[in-house]
Amino acid sequence: MPRSFYLVIAVQFIAALADNALLIVAIARLVEIDAALWIIPLLKLGFTLSYVFLAPFVGPLADAWPKGRVMFLANSLKACAVLALLFGADPILVMAIAGLGAAIYGPAKYGLITELLRPQLLVRANGFIEASTVCAVILGTVAGGALISPALRHDGWPQGWSALSGMSTALVPGMLVLLALYALAALLNTAIPDSGARYPQHRVRIRPMVLRFFSENRLLWRDPMGGLSMAVTTLLWGIGATLQLIVLRWAQQCLGLSLEQAAYLQGVTALGVIAGAVLASRHISLDAATRVLPLGVIMGLLVPCMVWVSSPLLAGGLLMTFGALAGFFVVPMNALLQHRGHQLLSAGRSIAVQGFNENAGMLLMLALYAGATAMDVSLGLLLCCFGLTVASVMLAILWRQHELTSAAPPKPA
After folding, report:
1. What CATH number does the domain located at 3-192+207-406 have?
2. How far is residue 226 from each of residues 2, 163, 249, 413, measured CA to CA in Å?
3. What is d(CA 129, CA 133) in angstroms, rounded to the nearest whole number?
4. Most CB contacts within 10 A, which of 46, 207, 271, 369?
5. What is the pLDDT of residue 97?
6. CA–CA gap between residue 227 and residue 222 (Å, rounded)
């Protein structure tokens, strides 16, 4: 692996850590102002909207300039989001601004990796990315819990900050830490070298860009392996985003934990993901990526088991198992999708298409979860419906993969 790849990993780690800590701080801010429970999923919805609505434009943006410069812009936007939170902006608006930065960041980051590495290294690289991202999730959720803990809530902060900004909050120290993390990530972005890859320049015309994007989207979906891997990663992202919020609620309602402790429990899931991602990067080749598909069915069937768990120790074991399956599952699927996308489209454009679909899946599942919460659907029923739906969709994807394999011409002897 080239040294520049490890620099990208370091920047990704810091930015992802801050993203996950920001979510916990934003939830704590909603709790601080006594917001309704159903508003909490809107934080993730706000973060995700930019991925969907700006997808036709972020791919060309990532390909128009050196990707380190684009990543600098993205992390600067996230820093602006924290500044807005410091001065009393609505947490949903803050998450939307941070989501804008993240939407710009994704195609630049993954596009740069496909430019720097040979296809044979993509599964290994995705193992590194997944492990570093999940480490950031662990430390980010733990850091988020620490940033909202009583240890960082100083009695003098609310009054002093209220006089300066017009907003009363005890979360100022945590917000300042987040601001420093995003500033550090932006600074490190300036050291990322130019890969030297250049793509044809296009005029900024909204309608042709949107039409071209959806033509590229259709092309990737119609590709047998591209469409299959896209369906899997779209489902998996929706699962991850919704389960993150469900676990926080489940830990508080069923396990009797505080929000701070529930954030720590999420880190246990992330430990499992790291283990699964490392194993996949070592033992699953790009050609064998589809062999992990049955794990998706098992993951779906594990979710309803949360209903019968009331011990934090058992909860940790269940979440770690789920995480390990998810990590082993997502790394080969991501690598396969990136490889097919890079072959059919450019690096930045293929990642933008991937991000659009995955985040559209997140929006749908988060909207359903917010609606179910607003209608007071019980947590037990929600978990059962969620898990069985995931298992059913994965069975349908498995059937489709079986059809594709059966229809493929036999290899010559």
Report:
1. 1.20.1250.20
2. 27, 55, 35, 27
3. 6
4. 369
5. 92
6. 6
Q: What is the pLDDT of residue 412?
A: 45
Query: 92 is written with which tokens?
Result: 């949903």
C-alpha–C-alpha distance, residues 270 and 323, integer Å: 6
Domain parsing of the chain, residue ranges: 3-192+207-406
Neighbours of 123 (CB within 10 A): 25
Torsion over CA: 350, 287, 328, 181 (sign): negative
Which residue's entry shows tokens 């890859």? 197
| Amino acid letter, residue 169 | T
Residue 205's SS3 state is coil
Task: Give the C-alpha separation, 173 to 284, whole Å.
Answer: 44
- Express each pLDDT in 186-235 by its tens digit: 898 888 776 555 555 556 567 777 788 888 888 888 888 888 888 888 88
Identify the three-state secondary structure at position 408. coil
Q: How far apart are CA 238 and CA 98, in angstroms?
A: 19
User: Measured between alpha carbons, how far is 15 from 157 in angstroms, rounded to an integer?
Assistant: 26
- Measured between alpha carbons, how far is residue 229 from residues 96, 153, 205, 335 in Å? 28, 45, 30, 9
What is each CA distance from 163 to 25, 84, 157, 386, in whole angstroms?
Answer: 21, 16, 10, 46
251-264 pLDDT, tens digit each:
888 888 877 777 77
pLDDT for 346-394, tens place per residue?
A: 656 677 787 788 888 888 888 888 888 888 888 888 888 888 888 898 8
The rounded distance, in Å, linking the Cα atoms of 151 and 147 is: 8
Q: Are residues 131 and 277 in contact, defined by beta-carbon separation less than 8 angstroms?
A: yes
Helix, strand, coil percentages in the chain from 3-state DSSP, rounded to 5: 85, 0, 15
Q: How far apart are CA 81 and CA 85, in angstroms?
A: 6
Percent of the chain exceeding pLDDT 90 equals 7
